[in-house]
Amino acid sequence: MSRYANRAARLCTHLAGQQLDAFIVTSPTHLRYLTGFTGSNGLGVVTRRDTYFLTDPRYRGQAAKQVRSARRIFTHRPLLEAMEENRCLSYCRRIGFESHVLTYQQYRVLRKAFPRKLFIPTSGVVEKLLLVKDSAELEAMRAAMRITDSVYTEVIGLLRPGMREHDVAAEISYRQRRLGAEGDAFDPIVASGERGSLPHARASEKVIRKGDLVTLDFGCTVAGYHSDLTRTVAIGHATRRAREIHRLVLMAQEAALAAARAGIRASELDAVARRVITDGGYGPAFSHSLGHGLGLHIHERPRVSALSTDTLIAGSVITVEPGIYIAGWGGVRIEDDILLTQTGSTVLTAAPKDLMVL
Ligand code: ZN
Ligand code: ZN
User: Fold this and answer.
1) Nearest ligand to the CA atom of 333
2) Are residues 194 and 151 located together in one domain of the fold?
């Protein structure tokens, strides 16, 4: 059975559990996961008997190459309406749809085209399948992480006082592409000096100066799968306070890495890192959650926070990224991506973590 047929079969098992006869996939990311299609206009329908893939004729060649395990339908009509004449939903009564993706207007189209069927809003159905990565997914993620690790090494070789944060971000994007990435995982974060106190600062016009700490947080995608890495470096020299805070963040991160394994509650893992930072006197300055699930989305299940109700399972990939942020001073964050196993975890990112003074 092909990788995609296998995924559709797993989805079917979930559908049976929820008394659904069919499932309409409108998220482009989920469609890629279930069929392999990477174009922008596509629709998937998974029933207990068959998987259908609908798109417009522009994608005939691409779909022939990418979509092997579904019945391909090419139509000039709106895809939701075209399900009717192609009888994709015959014998189906209860049909699930992705309630966070399908628009209200599309819902009305469905109701009009299929007045006798029941459309059931669902959330988290495909997301549940994404929790455990198969070997092809892990291979793509490892490739993305290798690129990101290499680019980190290249970029710290370039960092100089006088560069703008934008210059550094541009080097990151360019170099990741050159090494084989499809694109950036997100706009690279380059936060220097006081801007380091903003956990999600995008790169700006700010010029990097001697004495700044610089937080670099970036990643790329390979075959749709993300890497996500953060390191904080010092330019010229590091103050005693910078060294202390960096050491504390690293201790917290390593404590969490050592505790991560299948079976631990995500909130408990968050607490492991938070305790180290709190004991060091900076508890309130760790102002975000410990990490997040990673894969086809930059943020996906499991949730890795103090409020999460998820228990971690083997085969999930998560980030571990504690940080300390002090307004008017700056910040430090260290982030790695790890694969959870029964007995522990495998750290997938490999960039060096000691405080580098450049
Ligand atoms: Zn990140
Ligand atoms: Zn992250």
Assistant:
1) 1
2) yes
pLDDT confidence of residue 2: 87
Q: For residue 292, how far is its CA from the centre of ligand 2 (angstroms)? A: 6
pLDDT of residue 1: 74
Amino acid residing at 158: L
- 132-154 per-position pLDDT tens digit: 999 999 999 999 999 999 999 99
Alpha carbon of 189 to ligand 1 centroid (Å): 8
- Express each pLDDT in 236-277 by its tens digit: 999 999 999 999 999 999 999 999 999 999 999 999 999 999
Measured distance CA(5)–CA(192) in Å, rounded: 47
pTM over 0.90: yes
The rounded Å distance from CA 335 to ligand 1 centre is 6
**Domain end point (choices 100, 129, 158):** 129
What is the C-alpha separation between 161 and 239, in angstroms, rounded?
Answer: 16
Whether the bond between 302 and the residue before it is cis, its omega within 30 degrees of 0, is yes
- Residue type (1 letter), 39: G
Domain region containing 61: 3-129
Is residue 355 in some structural domain?
no
Last residue of a domain, one of 129, 154, 177: 129
- Which ligand neighbours the alpha carbon of 215 most closely? 1
Look over the chain and give the mean of its residue pLDDT values, rounded to a whole number.
96
240 Cα to the center of ligand 1, angstroms: 26
The domain tally of the chain equals: 2
C-alpha distances (whole Å) from 22 to each of 75, 94, 101, 191 are 21, 7, 17, 46
Whether 299 is covered by a domain: the verdict is yes
CA of 33 to the centre of ligand 1 (A): 23
CA–centroid distance, 338 to ligand 1, in Å, is 13
The bound ligand whose nearest atom lies closest to the alpha carbon of 294 is 2
